[in-house]
Batch of 2 targets.
Target 1
Amino acid sequence: MIKYFYNEVEDRLDVKLEGDFDIEGTEVVEEELIPTMLNYKTVNIDFENVPFVDSSGMGLLIDIVKTLNDKGIKVTISKVRQEVFEVFEIIQLPEILGEEVFV
Amino acid sequence: MRSVVSKGKNIEEAIQLGLKLLDTKKEEVDIEIIQPETKGFLGIGARKAIVKLTKVDASVKKLKENDRAESEGNDKEINSEMLNDIISETSSSQEENENHPVADEMDKEGKVWVKSGKLFFSTTPTFYPTLTIGKGIKLYKNNELVKDKNIVLSETDRYEVKCENDVQETKWNISIDKLKLKALLHVEPGYKMTRRIPDIEPSKHIELIAEELKEIQNTLSFAEVIEELASLGVIYGINEDQILKAIESRQPGTFEIATGKKATHGHDGWIEPKVPLTIQNGLKEDEDGKVNYRELRAIPTAERGEVIAVIHPPVPGQPGITITNEPLPPKPSYPIKLRAGKGVVVVDDKIVAMESGRPHIEQRGQLVKVDILPKITHSGNVDLSSGNIRFVGDVDILGDVDVRMTVEAAGAIFVQKNVNMATLTAAGAIVVNGNVIGSKLSAGKYNRLIAELGQLLEEMHTQVKSMIEVIRQLIHSPAFKSNDFQRGGMQPLIRILLEKKFKSLPPLAKKYVDLVQKEEKDLEDDDWKEVAVFVRKTFLSLTKEITSLEQMEQLAQKMKQLSEFSKIPVEPDSYIIISNVLNSDIYCSGDIIVSGQGCLNTKIHAGGKLEIRGIMRGGEVYGKLGVEIHEAGAESGTTTIIAVPVGQTIKINKALEGTILKIGNVKHTLKENQDSIVARLDENNRMIFEKKA
């Protein structure tokens, strides 16, 4: 099960994820994480401690970025592990979300 | 007294070389500089220094020195005078060693010769014999191998000749063809080359050429070949006589030392018609080029209960055997896939008519459709009072087809009179005895639909196949978890992939699904619809239904089969025969014949051959399998275009200036009137014209 830690700096939110970003975490992300993120102007999601992803998780990530962008909130994703980034590249996630999202 | 002329990079080197040749010291020779060295530029125009050394007695030398002292500034002349004296003396002493025995005969002086494989020579003060070393011979000078090809022999050195003897091992290998039906032994027998130098008469220059004796030694043994075959796993069809020939061969060669047995292919099932089927043969034009309508009455018919055709089962092939003793399966042979249509019933291996009508057998690959086509005869005109005609069989119209009327038939359409600003669509043939004016005729619509669907599936197949590849790649990625596939199937992943990587797939899928839906009633094969259902639920709607990778693979397979199927031509193809046509649009998947006087301002597309027996003025015509026209072009200059694909020909009896011919992408406009031309492309893709015989 995915865990997350918040670090708030004024209107910027840093979310540090820990665990696999997969179908198990769908509920938590949709019901807790997204509503929280909507209260900030800038959000960064730290993927340093995410070793695995699945297709539901990636679908969720697209949802997060799109939902937040629609509300004018700037989202960045940082410290993605190389193996995980390889998976993102196969499905062309950087092209879908915009290259600038990954920092 | 001897003298020598020697060359060197500079004077000093030339002198040193000369001294060496004379085996003497600088003090004991007189030196004449014949030519000083020239450096040249970058080695161009460089010349070596040449000096002449003459061995003199110490006394003479001394005398010379005195002379020189006396006549300074003129010593060169004196020197040469003195040289002449010295040269005229014969050499007083002759050294003896193994290379130059005492020459009792004067004619050997300054010469070199070979006797009993040994080299002899003698030098004179004025001449040194020279030698060219041939192939396979090694010359040793003072036990050192001489690398130059040409050499000057000097008495101070000791020479020895040796002949090289070459030994070449026998080379061989065994290769097996891809199908493992043949093992080829390539053998290149080895040899032993023995060389000896024959006796050579004394001469100033000789070339050492060895006599070569080549002895073929094929060392390949039967056991070696058998052993190698065994290690390659070859155990079937070994040709021992060929192996024996190979090991005895004295020339390089290839021997088929094992031969497998090829599979004999059987053949697919087929259908044998028992009644005449073609109306095309029954159609005869009279002298005016009009279709004789009475002949149409003689369209083949089958009576109720008559056997229309017999189904033959496939004949399986015989398996072959590879040289590694594995069975080689024959190409599978398939039975025909029969679709018994309206009015027929299958009894055992026979197809029997249940009602009387025109028997119709249509074949596309192994798919065979048999129908008894009912026929309606419309005795008057097709106009507002009769309404449009849509019929599942043949339609026979005795009158005209009037303005804005439509006739559609699953079989053929026959019109005895004229077609005026109307639309005729037939899956089979269209025959119009009168004139066609401002109308749209399309025969073989089914083919066009299948071709279009097949094209869409081909594009989709490429994408689905590569999508499967991507999914496989993902599953093998270390950071990818695939256990949500069990719960949600591929759907979430497919959705992401359609977002970007395969974003061109949904539009294709939509086009395909829409087309299948629209033309549903014309699609006899359910496979098209099955693919449409799967495509819709996988790529278009967002159902939660679980899709597995296996299902995707099956889909890709099916798409491929259908798109390949769509490329197989239908037999017999539809055709159009009309007598005269004006301002119309004619499409047919098969042949088109315009049998009357003219074809004016009409667009024609024939999937087969196009024949216009009268005059073509204006318009654009295309014949996929070639075009033949009696007269083409318009004096008024109306654009007249005749096109065929690459590899086909355009034949015209009389072509007017300005007619445009197109073969593939090559376009040519006739500059003048021409008779009897045949246009085609040559190897360089240029249009060439031949005179028609």
Note: Chain A touches chain B at residues 20, 22-23, 51-59, 62, 81, 83-84, 86-87, 90-93, 95-96 (CB under 8 Å).
Target 2
Amino acid sequence: MIEFKLPDIGEGTAEGEIVKWLVSAGDAVKEHQAIVEVMTDKATVEVPAPADGTITELLVGEGDTVPVGDVIFRLDNGGGAPAQAASPEPAAAPSAPTAPSAPSAPSAPSAPTAVAAQPAPNGGKVLAVPSARRVARELSVDLSTVAGSGRNGVIRRADVEAAATGGAVAQSSHPVVAPTTAQAQRIPFRGVRRKIAEAMVRSSQTAVHFTIVEEVDVTDLVRVRQKAKAIGAEQGIKVTFMPFIMKAVANGLMKFPMLNGHLDEQAEEIVLPGTVNLGIATDTPNGLIVPVISQVESKGLLQLAAELGDLSERTRAGRVRPEELRGSTFSITNAGNIGGTIATPIINFPDIAILGVHRIVKRPGVVDTPEGEVIEVRQYMNFSCSVDHRLADGADAARFVAYLRQILEEPALLSL
Amino acid sequence: MTGLQQILNKEGVLVGEAPDLSDEQFVELLRNMIMIRSLDGRMLKLQRAGRVGFVGTATGLEASLVGAAAPLLPKDWMWSGLREGGAAITRGLPLFEYVAQMYCNSNDSAKGRQMCNHFQHKGSNYPSWSSVIGTQITHGVGAAYASARRGEDVVHSIHFGDGATSSNGFHSGLNLAGVWKAPCVFVCIDNGWAISVSSAQQTAAESYADKAEAYGMPGVTVDGNDVLAVYAEMQTAVERARAGGGPSLVVLKTYRMLGHSSSDDPSKYRDDAEVQSWAERDPLKRYEAFLIERGLIDSSECAAQEKAIVAEIDEVIHEQEAAPPFPLRSLVEDVYSEVPRHLRVQFNQFLEVAERRGDATRGDGAFPL
């Protein structure tokens, strides 16, 4: 059994935040397999398994900050000896390891003992890790009033957060009349949420966004999709409207390639890759994640439907691979099917453009028939397309969405 | 000034004259590059699991390391910047010593007195690294000068990064090497970033190779991801030094794909797009394509080699991980020819504490006073 202690992953880091567990208790793991994503003051890294074995227990929750040296998971490696990696040629094994004690097994009782909470020593310089200082600034906590639980009384981030909460609780117990209904919440701004924030700020401050909205009569598409759904069901594939939209977008981007790609600022070149890799904005319990389906222009509708189903499911379950989150050339967001009639989507930087897809609504529409114009119940869907005006112009975007409308209003044109 | 020297373009197509190497030598260059990449991958995993303390990878620099080391003879010397451990393996540093040094265990030839990931190997004339930027330049020049004075037919290859061109050692070393016509080659591995300082912030010169002119020596800029171009230009420089023609400056333009070290997060100072553009110039893929085209390997060779090498590395890791640390006594040894009384007294007191804590290891024991 190995008790895995959070290592000092960056020369003098004092603590790390558990961003995400990549395995669950009971999982069999291989030596070097990524087990947990940990964020320190310096970087966010994947911490791998020290040996082959079975994870018996995850001891720390996601979002928790733990000091270096704390046991964060237990791994049953079938004994105390260092695990042997599966070697393809066991005959060539040289001198086998002799020492029976695994180096990564606990050796000394060095678990950090929380130094008794006491004010900053000798009233001089306050000792705190950088993240604690940052959080203290953000939460307006005076560090000199915080007791440090780290080595030698160093203030850790958790100490600051505890002090901030403690302060709030103390306030509410004051005789001053305080509303007893909703308690104000303070949610740590980190992990995926902060990553999303950074990406959004970067996009919004760099790309010059403009948005064009188009209304599409999808009455025929609804019929076609109904049939496709039945065919897909026979093969166990769930066919939504998304594969049709993806296909239309891919066709449109092959025709109007200036919306498909990204800006290489270093080289001062607009990169137009000639293939369509669609980022699909996905709402997950952890926040917005954008996995990528590649070479959409060369794939059929059912294949797209199958890939999309698989990818969304794995993304929501947190099992998407890092390489599946890179390389988009254009993105689609369909949060609009929850509500709203138009949107101004933020571009998935450094893409050139993004398409927001809205829900289908029934409305009266004017239809040309041999007997003249009649009013019918039609189904409409809105598209909101945001484009980086540095890289493409309004006319480009207008031609692109007009083309989308043309082929989605007459789905047979998808095979063009 | 010449432009960027290249023999294989980024697709691996021959655009210059390939050096005169045997089929085995061509394939050996690939194997060595795979070794470096595999070793880096494994060491980083060990570091992330807390099994070794510190790692600085050479991922992306494989062609620069392997190509620059290959033209050197066993009797030549290599002076390291901060990433040539893999190149040292190609010159004779045993893999187990490399791994032992990462663990600073009792097989570490530096006896645990170096930071981990700082190698040395006496057998292949490879002095221990210094993390202090540029100091090895003056050391190497002095050693080259000494070699010449002694009439030894030895060339010193002195490696450093782009950041070291701003160090005092760079000026002192290149200046005197030029004056003395010291038998050495200055190898500047320009990987674009000195930790977080870009080459654009480092110098206004178009290439670091321009600096050679001021020291009266030839300077050349080479595509550092093209192992054949690196080999060819290094061979020219080594031959020139060996023939008494004096030093040269060879600048290898390449890119560090990962962080400066395991403590660094490069995404904080550089763009993904820049990293991506270098991923497309990968030195291994390019050279693999060339070897396949030349009929020296088939397309499955790389994966097969990597698998075998990783298995070999893993075996060595498990062996070295189980090796004991250095005896505590080594703390006070090797400074005086015999450990003096005041250190023996201190050590004996220290040993009592270590024994109480259960940290005393085999080979220890109190000194007779």
Note: Chain B is about 45% helix and 10% strand.
